[in-house]
């Protein structure tokens, strides 16, 4: 089943996308610099900003997701 049709898988994909973009921006900040900030290409930049500003919430979500998948 596709991650689009399964809500739990969609949340995992979004959470991993935010974590990946934040990690890439911390290592190589120039990769995510885009001239058009309001286009589809600016989505990784916005995800990196969300990951940086909400980092305690994002890390707690990763821990809960990991525990849930270990139990399941």
UniProtKB/TrEMBL annotation:
Pfam family, one: DUF1242
InterPro entries to which the protein is assigned, alphabetical: KISH_domain (IPR051523), Ksh1 (IPR009653)
Superkingdom to which the source organism belongs: Eukaryota
GO cellular component, one term: Golgi membrane
Main location: Golgi
Keywords: Golgi apparatus, Membrane, Signal, Transmembrane, Transmembrane helix
Functional description taken from the UniProt entry: Involved in the early part of the secretory pathway.
UniProt name for this protein: Protein kish
């Amino acid at each position: 089943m596709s991650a689009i049709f399964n809500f739990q898988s969609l949340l995992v994909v979004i959470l991993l996308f935010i974590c990946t973009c934040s990690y890439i921006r911390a290592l190589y900040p120039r990769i995510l610099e885009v001239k058009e900030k309001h286009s589809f290409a600016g989505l990784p930049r916005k995800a990196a900003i969300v990951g940086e500003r909400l980092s305690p919430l994002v890390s707690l979500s990763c821990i809960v997701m990991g525990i849930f998948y270990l139990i399941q």
